[in-house]
Amino acid sequence: MPECIRRKRTSGLNSLKQLADHLDEFEPIAFEKISVPGGLWVYNDGDKDNHGLPVHSSIYANLKTNTPRELMAFPNYPQFHGPHSITTHEGVLNYLRNFTQHFDLLKYITFDTLVEHVSPILDRSNDEEKTKWTVTTKNLNTNEISKTICDSVIVATGKNSKPYIPEINNIGSFKGEVSHVHTYRKPEKYAGKTVVLLGAGPSGIDIAIDLSAHAKKIYLSHRHAVIESLFPANIEQVPGVIAVDENYVVLSNGTKLVADVFFFATGYAFDYSFLDSSCGLTIQPKRVFPLYKQLINAKHPTMAIVGVASVISPFLFPYFQAKYYVAYLRGIVKLPSKAERIEEANILPPGAKRGHYHDIDNNQWSYIRESATQAGFEPLPDYYEKAYKKWEEYRLAHLSTFRNTDFSFNRNGAFNFQYLNSQIA
């Protein structure tokens, strides 16, 4: 029976490659909703895809990576080409398509196919360790429904498709535009307007900066300490929003801001609605439970969800997660008992804020080392960790200008920053 991969994002492609390395043991098949490889990195100017379904991707026109390509490339395919360290979304898409072609992965992918439902099939002994799965799919060109029985399932749909929108008092009365940054595409649309962005995570900050060349004023609203980084003159940090009226936004300190546009930059909610409740997972907006090692369904370990973890290297971490999981499927990794897996899934990662069960941050490097030891593969060289931390330190200190910098490092841990614009220094 095949090993099924639901959708083919970055995590899905590298999971597919890990399975394809062992065709004597696996029969991989991947289901992808859109018509081409690249998933999240396929830019769509509208809010519907060619099948009339909501666009999964949150890519906007001017998006560039916030991590150098030297720290993004999969270890098994370092050919991440481009003129500079920071890459456009087109550059990332080209890399992923070259990866797909280089490893001949297209033959395992069924495009234009929506996974509608996944449900477990226990063997006759009701052994949850050997659960098989029924994957129900819909051909979006013909509307034909099919069922595939799989020995294991890897879910790789990503986590940036269902906007998380907190309740704001009286938001429905606002006369201006209200939307989530998931649908943001081009800054020219907001020329001369005053914009309130609620949320100062990476997306909120990047979109505020993208807007700054066209919008009249951007208020970056958040509840945290003032961000100590130089922003364009028309970006102002303000406290959190507690209410909205017809023409203005009310902040927690009582200030009223007149605005034309209100953007939620409040992140995303996990959406695995295609998983049957009998899969044994509890899906909350900000948590999937119980996932052993932020990856494996603790109750039915023949299911994994790659890409749940947050605050991680976006290519490297899921690469090693997939490598570890395939080692488990091959019988190399031995898991602890079900009770121990569930207990581990309930532990907050060291240093994570309360309730942020999937924030890995600096623990990702020990995670990778531990996974490599258990699965018997080569760990990531230590200089990656040093370079990543050095880059993050630099990025946070130069939020408006870091993308104008080329970054390089070597195995001895030496770093080099080359400014592409003299105004940055």
What can you tell me about this protein's structure?
With 425 residues, this protein is of the alpha/beta class. Helix content is 20%, strand content 22%. The chain contains seven helices and 22 strands. The protein has helices at 10-20, 89-102, 202-211, 316-329, 338-345, 364-375, 382-397, and strands at 3-6, 28-31, 109-110, 113-121, 132-139, 145-150, 152-155, 177-180, 194-198, 217-221, 235-238, 241-244, 248-251, 256-258, 261-264, 282-284, 287-289, 291-292, 296-297, 303-305, 405-409, 415-419. It has a five-stranded parallel beta sheet with strand order 3-2-1-7-20, with helices on one face. A five-stranded parallel beta sheet has the order 8-15-9-10-11, covered by helices on one side. The chain is globular, with a radius of gyration of 22 Å. The model has no long low-confidence stretch (mean pLDDT 93).
Which percent range describes the beta-strand content? 15-25%
The geometry reads as globular
Largest sheet: 5 strands, parallel
Which bin fits the share of residues in helices? 10-25%
- Cα separation of the termini: 57 Å
| Helix and strand sequence | EHEHEEEEEEEHEEEEEEEEEEEHHHHEE
Q: In DSSP terms, counting alpha (H) and pi (I) runs of 4 or more, how many helices? A: 7
Low-confidence stretches: none
Strand order of the largest sheet: 3-2-1-7-20
> What would you report as the Rg, rounded to the nearest angstrom?
22 Å
